[in-house]
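B., you asked whether I could sanity-check this one before it goes into the benchmark set. Here's the sequence:
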Amino acid sequence: MGIRISFSKPPGQGLTYGLAFVGGFGDAAGFVLASTFTGHITGNLVLAAVSTAAGDWLTTLIRLSAIGAFLAGIFLSVACARLTASRQWPPLVAAFVGEVVLISAGSLTLMSHTATGIEIFVLCLSLALGLQNGAFRRVGGISIHTTYLTGMLTGLMVTESEKLFSQPSSAATTQDQRARLLYGIWVSFFLGAATGAALVLRFKEAGMLAVVLVLMVLIVRTLLSEQISPGQLPRSQGYPVTTGANDLNVSGRKEK
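And here's what the prediction gave me:
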């Protein structure tokens, strides 16, 4: 059985694009600082295979640990949703706060130049982006990801290709809305990646803290959309988030 958590309003496209910006920022900045992708799995599997072939076992371990931390973050997002449901807190806010703590801790550890700073940074950032990816997966019934794009872009290209060979229909409007959303995520992810890379190239480890500010803005925006204060978080009505063992999403469809 899933857990149903309600929102007074559905998460908007602004929040979606903001999270895509965070995903691109974290992935690009993590790669510049640690030569490891922290927001998805496929790239790290390839990089781990390359470092294995080169006999660089420490780098291989770091890249495989990033995969494990990302998957653990998804698991943690489910546990977080269940905990917030029992305490009637907005589940996205809890996930965003977790991201802020993890990214801040990882960045500060890397800035301290400790012997294991890179390893801790990769684990914290991968865990944070896994938490985000698991906590925010649907908008208006459309399946999305905000930390990697391959699957969404494949679906987008299939949709655009099918439009060229089909007659206009009522489904075209829905497809156009989905396409606009995915294009927006694509652009936001790219802008986040470019910004993250530029900041860490210019300011080194300190540049990572800029994404913490973005997340704090998203936290405030989410709380304001609930029209309640952080100290008073009663359960609201209208837009459900359904979570379960195999599914965790944010739905923009009204509960019937």
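One thing to flag: The two ends are 18 Å apart (CA to CA). Otherwise nothing jumped out at me.
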